[in-house]
Request: fold
Amino acid sequence: MVTKSTTSSDRDLERRVLGYLCEKHVPSFRRLTVEACDGVVTLRGRVSSFYEKQLSHHCCRRVAGVTRLVDAMEVN
Reply:
């Protein structure tokens, strides 16, 4: 889920991060909320395992434009 941002570049970054996460075909990634503000990306939601949490971090850092990642996720 992409949230409302103040700039089009923030919205674009949110879409690119979410798109990259969805390419991994991990069901819990489709339920994550991605927020971006000036290159700082915040991930919120629940994942099934610590491995999925780490994988989501790795994926986000690979997207151009992400300068910092804020983890607000929970592991079931």
